[in-house]
Amino acid sequence: QVQLVESGGGLVQAGGSLRLSCAASGRAITGNTIWYRQAPGKVREFVATITWSRGQTYYADSVKGRFTISRNNGNNTVYQQMGNLKPEDTAVYYCNLGRFWGQGTQVTGSS
User: Strands 18-25 and 3-7: what pairing?
Assistant: First the structure.
């Protein structure tokens, strides 16, 4: 069993930055970790992923160049640095590892 706990969300003005964390407990992260987000009234969408084997990263076009996903194997945590935030980035952000999901963390970008 794996528990994922996201943190770091909050309210930020347009153009601001936040860093989300996804801390895993129960076992070491040995799979691809994915960030998703879900805005009110919309379906959950892919944001970014980092592969376990080589640490390759992939991003949704909407966040490319503004968000950076990274990981720290020492503390079993995956991060998402978000810059130049826009109101349309407002959503609950979820961390996913295989069949395991975190509870989500709210990010609100104000105009």
Answer: antiparallel
Biggest alpha carbon–alpha carbon distance for the chain: 40
Confidence of residue 27 (pLDDT cuts 50, 70, 90): confident
Question: Phi and psi at residue 82, in whole multiples of 5°?
Answer: -115, 125
Query: Among 52, 68, 71, 72, which residue's Cα sits nearest to residue 60?
Result: 68
**Which amino acid makes up residue 57?**
T
Beta strands 10-13 and 105-110 are parallel
Element spanning 2, H or E: none
Helix (H) or strand (E) holding 38: strand 33-38
3-state DSSP assignment of residue 28: coil
Listed residue (42, 47, 31) closest to 80, CA to CA: 47
Instruction: State the average pLDDT over residues 16-41.
Output: 92
| pLDDT tens, position by position, 52-99 | 889 999 999 999 999 999 999 888 999 999 999 999 999 999 999 999
